[in-house]
Amino acid sequence: MKTLAREECRAAIQRRIRTVRPESAARWGRMSAHQMICHLSDGCRMALGEKAVSAAPTLFERTVLKGVVLYAPVRWPSGIPTSPEIDQLCGGTPPASFAADVAELHTLLEGLTRRDEGSAWARHPVFGRMSRAAWLRWSYLHADHHLRQFGT
User: Fold this and answer.
1) H-type helices in 20-118, by residue range?
2) pTM higher than 0.90 for the full model?
3) Which of 75, 91, 97, 107 is most buried, by CB atoms within 10 Å?
């Protein structure tokens, strides 16, 4: 199973991030490549509890949907809604310098993977309480989804 907890998966995601260029065209969605980099950083900040997001999960989302999204062997489809606080078209962190924002994303990914199980992990806005393992799996899938969005 691919997860940021595994060094080879983390290295592959880091490598793919380095191939993104400001002019990289999206295969779907409305974000630019630079906005996507900032969106992935906001996802890390959310997991680390550095960026608060609103939550309204149902029992179905916290249990059944969470299991399917995190562990079913299918790729996430395009068009999945996101929390407004990390949505680049309304409340996400605005892009600044592309190189600096990419460097920040690398730093946040490293910080995320270094955080241990006993540390405070934020609640996911849809899936509720998640373990370190679940957050690192979600973070891998989230990055993979958006990197595929830009052809990498």
Assistant:
1) 33-48, 59-60, 66-71, 98-114
2) yes
3) 91
